[in-house]
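Self-study notes.
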Amino acid sequence: MSFAPVLHAEWIKVRTLRSLRGALAAILVATAAFSALASVDTDTGDPDPLFAVFFGVSFGQIAAIAFGTTAVSSEFRGGALRLTLSAVPDRGRWFAAKALAIALPTLAVGLLTGFVTLLVGRAALGTSAPGWAEGARGAVGCGLHLTFMALFAAGLAAVLRSGVATLSVLIPFLLIVSFVIGDLSGGVADFLPDRAGQVALHSGWDGTLGPWSGLAVAGLWAAAALLAGGWSLRRRDA
């Protein structure tokens, strides 16, 4: 089977599973809602108005992780993967289609989320809001960061073969461990996937990474996770 029908089949799964549609919607709702609250509560003298606008990405990325995790882990329930591989014996081709079916809707929703959040934040901050050029960079960075986090989760889910195990690792890491490591390890924490990707959401940066290099590091984490997931799929039984 060629790549196009495999991708179409994976897109049908994303479009028809209610949990996946809900996770995509949660990316927009969580990011915009928490960003709006942060923008309203921000003092006019805030030194980083751009991050005030995109503060909710810290919560939206959890929904992106849930989307990537669920899209892959659902294949390991009830023998679904065996049925899928009977139609698409080439595991590498199938997993590439799965990754693309995760990346495209996440990127589309992530970019929409970024620009909606920018408009809401600018309205809330008024004269203290970041400029359009800086805001557009943040909106694009928002979309890319959310996409990389979804793909990172998808790769890890393919390795662990469990949605519960994947979320049990990633969510505590994002909410607790990343902050603790960041406080204790100096610049090393800047290279963690969640922190690296969010550099693009700040007006200024003092660390090694800038907006685009930070996104590149987050992309490398996602690529490494997908390669590990693809290797695991090839080496283990369905």
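Second protein, same conventions, sequence then structure:
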Amino acid sequence: MDFGTAVWSSRAWQAAAVEWLDHRLADAGIRRTGPVAHPHIRAWATAVRVPTDRGTYWFKACSPGTAFEVRLYAVLAERVPAHVLRPLAADPDRAWILLPDGGPLLGEQLSGPALARALGAALVQYGRVQLDLMPAAGRMLAAGVADMRPAAMLQQFDRAVAMTAAGVRDDPDRRGRRAAVAAARPAVERWCATVAQSALPASLDHNDLHPRNIFWDGAGSGSGQARFFDWGDAVLAHPFAAALVPLGMVRRFLDEPLDGPGFLAVRNAYLDLFRDLAPAEDLPAMLETACRVAKIARAHTWQRAIGAAAEQGDEAADRFRDAPLDTLVAVLDQDWLTVG
């Protein structure tokens, strides 16, 4: 698999990509109507905008660390087609995929309380997606989605602590924060055990479910239809792990505390989806613990991205070097929605 910012910026790679996508468009009876644009090149993925006589398409190439996204799309398109983009074509061996444009992003249309309400509605819709995907857990693992199910999370915590060792020797502050995280292992073990006892089956945690990863068909309103995309950070986890990012943003957009009426309305609407699978009175506490444990998976995601950037000399490696440790420190925060 050819990948990386240097490869993706080369004329040879771009010519090969355009040749491939042109053939795939032609197979579907679609014609490209102008030159492609290449606005997004990152260490972990790149995207090419493709104008056609059927609207805009996007060609995406992934690095080895996110290549599973191409195979995951096959599962999503089969199980939850109304909630995701349906690929026009894919080449899993090269980690290439061709997708239709999904329209305006949620984060481009709304702000403040209106954005909070729409994001809450999108979270409820995502909860339905999670329920539909629960029977496909094995297929998602086979596609390469990382295993962050509750039983694996203490081991994942230990791995995350170990991976943050680099760079702390000459930095007393980083060394002290890492020591505090390591010393909290007994508490983390209790939290992981609590989540492992949950009656809820594992499902797909998008792991970065924010308003710019959601297409929104709502005419600029707080109610509408969402479609979810950008699955390169996704993991298989306790379903409530997926609520960490959107609930944190809902609270911020509402400017409410955790017991505020608007926040609780969003939280409860999401939890109500799972009442048939676990006692309703247990769900709020399980949500808090699952979100706390979910930060461990986010630390791994940061480390993977930084590693890809470092391999390619990308300045993002230095800019985000503290993110894995910051995220682990947030596991201990009294505020269960803090993400680091």
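Instructor comment on the second fold: The chain has a mean pLDDT of 95.
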